[in-house]
UniProtKB/TrEMBL annotation:
This is DUF3307 domain-containing protein. InterPro entries: Phage_phiKZ_Orf197. Pfam families: DUF3307. The chain crosses the membrane at residues 43-65, 127-149, 169-191, 211-230. The keyword Transmembrane applies. The keyword Transmembrane helix applies. The lineage of its organism: Bacteria, Pseudomonadati, Pseudomonadota, Alphaproteobacteria, Rhodobacterales. Keywords: Membrane, Transmembrane, Transmembrane helix.
Length: 237
């Protein structure tokens, strides 16, 4: 890819991540079978993409239409009992990334023709950091949740509502930040602290113990991959 295509892809990727994981609420996800909710999500994708590209409406409209079409397939074609599993989530996100890559290949100048083009050198590092942070934290939640969904009913520890989700979000954020500041050794202390705090819960039930271990390793692994990939991308610019 040329530098122009990379800038276009990064801008579209950031807009996609913001649309799917920051500006899309749980209520919107639940109600997405309603056409007006799906349309609203498409409008948000269009607005954020147009903004990220610096006011280039045609590529933003293409991505918004493709995004709505992909989400419609997932919403209406995937059975409800499988919709929150890992494979529909990864398939859906891969399809979105493919459309972004295609746009960058065929319209590489989309970002260069926008109002942010003159500031691309300044904007790329923070855009990479924000994209990486969202991938490591918010995008990791559905992935880990989808992986663990088949085992959730058998080994769900008692606790606060959404506590596991919040803990996972915080631990992935801490891992991301530790890697980015060059202190990955601190992750070991995070693992130790979580093991100590979970000890009384997991020692009483083997299924809960295995559930927590698999979920923790998946969460840590996702965050580490996202963090090191982000750092490598930032170092290349």
């Amino acid at each position: 890819m040329t530098e122009q295509a990379i800038a276009t892809a990064l801008a579209c990727l950031l807009a996609h991540l913001l649309a799917d994981f920051v500006f899309q609420t749980n209520a919107m996800v639940t109600a997405k079978r309603k056409p007006q909710v799906l349309l609203l999500h498409g409008i948000i994708v269009f607005a954020l993409t147009a903004l990220a590209l610096g006011g280039t409406p045609i590529p933003a409209a293409f991505l918004a239409l493709a995004h709505v079409a992909i989400d419609a397939v997932k919403t209406y074609a995937v059975p409800a009992q499988h919709r929150e599993r890992l494979w529909p989530y990864l398939t859906d996100q891969t399809a979105h990334l493919v459309t972004i890559a295609l746009l960058a290949l065929y319209l590489p100048e989309a970002f260069a023709s926008g109002i942010w083009a003159a500031h691309s050198t300044t904007l790329v590092p923070p855009a990479l950091f924000i994209a990486g942070l969202i991938i490591a934290t918010l995008a990791g939640g559905p992935a880990v949740g989808g992986l663990m969904l088949p085992h959730k009913a058998q080994a769900q520890p008692d606790g606060l509502d959404n506590a596991g989700r919040i803990i996972g979000l915080l631990e992935r954020a801490l891992i991301f930040l530790m890697v980015m500041i060059g202190e990955p050794a601190g992750i070991g202390f995070l693992i130790a602290a979580k093991s100590i705090l979970r000890f009384d819960t997991v020692k009483k039930n083997q299924k809960i113990s295995e559930y927590v271990i698999i979920g923790t390793l998946a969460s840590f692994g996702w965050a580490l991959i996202a963090a090191f990939a982000t750092k490598a991308a930032m170092n290349s610019f």
